[in-house]
Amino acid sequence: MYGLLLENVAEVIRMNYGQSQWDEIKQRAEVTQLQFVNHQAYSETYMHRICKAASEILDLSRDELMYKFGETFVHQMTKKGYRDILRVLGRNVRDFVNGLDNLHEYLKFSYPKLKPPSFIVTQEDFAGITLEYKSKRRGFTYYVKGQLEAVCREFYNTNVMIDILSENIVSDMTNISYRMKFDNTLSNTSDDARPRSSLRNDLTISNSLFFYLFPFNVVFNENMVIVAVGSSLKTIMDDAQGRAIDEVFTLKKPPITLTYNNVRNHLNNVFELSTMDNVGPDREEQEEGSNGLALRGQMVLMVEWQVIVYLASPILANLEDMKRAGLFINDLCMHDSSRELVLAGTQQSVEMKLALSQEEQKARQLEQNLKTLDKEMKKTDDLLYQMIPKSIAQQLRRGVSPVDTCKLYESVSIVFTDIKGFTKICSPLKPTDVVKLLNTMYTLFDRFSDQHNIFKVETIGDAYMGVGGCPNENQEHPVNALEMALHMVMATGMITTPNGDNLQIRAGVHSGSAIAGIVGMTMPRYCLFGKSVQIANLMESSGMPDRVQVSEDTKKLLSKTTYIFEKRQDKIQFLEREMTTYFVQRPLMLDEKSKREYAHVQKLVRDTEADADFTMAAD
């Protein structure tokens, strides 16, 4: 499948639902391409995966999506310069549909790997046309319907109603029958209406002249026996006359059984036949069927002769193909463009390959640039999300005012920590040692915040503040905040200063309501406001080293847990009232789970210290 189809799908989704939805669809469909190149072939599964993901995310049926993709594809094709090709296929809807099977032949020069479907008119009357679609692709029923209706509406100013009569799969071929309802009064399909010659009044030509004018024709009768072949064809296949046509040729297109009646019913289609036997001077040395001659042309019913004449031309891309077939320029027709096409084909083939190569190179460079840009944007986003929660950042990108991001949260848990005697610890240390110490500790705390779904609000000096249940609300925030505080206390005891002293921190947790949002325009930060922030800070500042102090409100939310709460004997003063607080610890369990947890924290400390050493050395 060429990127032309897939890029149209991407454009439809981006225009109608936004870039963010397309990114989500790509991720679910496991599509890694940042952009589809029109002339590049991609896996056939891409369309199905994208459509499935889009159906789930956009809450639309697959049929609705495929119809929309097909309908929009027509509009995109007109923008890409294919409008004239679509318009000159016929004077009206009837002519267009009858010549539809030939459309892909005109596109093969630009898309050489194209595997075209087949469109066959099986019935025609004054009320419309019955069209049969055959393809090895599955799932394009409504895609084709959307294309047909869009072409008829846009190019022929005709509203065509299309019904799907049947759909079945035979072997690997999908067969779909459409009924196109429109005013088809131009239809005139009876045999009596076909032009007939009068031997008495019309000019006649001899057989030899006819076969000279059409050197690659094949004449066969109702028994499908070859009566005669053109002069050039006879030079390379002198044994064809008198044999059954299906013994000499293989039908490549259209996908029908090669019978006399079938051919008569498909006179509007382009026929491709290929010789079963090799042709050319080296045919005896080549593998059987590897160098057959392909012909393309139309079938003409000769009523007077009671035969069908296949008026064809050889499919020769360049002089090399002609040489392999054992043909020469003078074997081709003089009255059409066969000779010019073959001679120009070699030069145009080289030019086209060069142009396509350059386009592919530019496309690869563009894709590489887009990947680099995507990586840099991801770095920018990661940095932004470290300062501002992702959900809030996305609101700001949509143009929401910073003030409007502020929101009251009824229940959050706030954790504060502070190093005991930090000023005294730092006084004998070098500035670089202080930075390394804080970097080790805060990097460790950041890992705990990710582990326990706590948002890091800020760090000021040796103080660390985090919040659970905000901006992503959840019911587990008291447990998350307390677990993080306990881990912080445990880990800090494993960190030693350059002088060999162990660190000690105070930790406090309080649960309550708070207002959170963006403050400021320069270096905007996500901040918390309210009495709960003050109480949480008080829990830390009035606490004891290596212990976690919580408020009465937090203890109530943790009443159904197994934590051990030790009531503090003295009361804490807050705004002229006394508060009851508690020190918290886990139950003493020397089981495997506790040992694993301790070992896990110990490993995190070692890894963080090693990373800090490496960073400082690199600096």
Instruction: Determine the number of helices (DSSP H or I, runs of at least 4 residues).
Output: 20
Strand content: 15-25%
CATH topology of the largest domain: Alpha-Beta Plaits
**Number of structural domains:** 3
Round the Cα radius of gyration to an integer and report it: 39 Å
Secondary-structure-derived class:
alpha+beta
Q: What CATH architecture of the largest domain would you give?
A: 2-Layer Sandwich
| Name of the CATH superfamily of the largest domain | Nucleotide cyclase, GGDEF domain
Low-pLDDT stretches = 190-194, 614-619
The first-level CATH class name of the largest domain: Alpha Beta
Mean pLDDT: 83
Count of strand segments: 20
Major β-sheet annotation: 8 strands, mixed
Multimerization state? single chain
The amount of helix comes to 40-55%
> CA-to-CA gap between the ends?
51 Å
What form results from the Cα inertia axes? elongated
Offer a few descriptive terms:
Beta-Lactamase; 22% strand; disordered C terminus; 619 residues; Alpha-Beta Plaits; 6-stranded antiparallel β-sheet; 3 domains
Describe the protein.
The chain is an alpha+beta fold and 619 residues long. It has helices at residues 3-17, 19-29, 45-58, 62-87, 93-98, 103-107, 141-156, 207-213, 231-236, 245-248, 260-265, 319-325, 338-387, 390-397, 422-426, 431-451, 477-492, 531-541, 552-557, 592-618; strands at residues 118-125, 128-135, 161-170, 173-181, 218-221, 226-229, 249-253, 271-275, 294-302, 307-314, 407-419, 455-460, 463-468, 505-519, 525-529, 547-551, 564-567, 572-574, 577-579, 581-585. A hairpin with a 2-residue loop joins strand 3 and strand 4 (173-181). Helix 1 (3-17) crosses helix 4 (62-87) and helix 4 packs across helix 7.
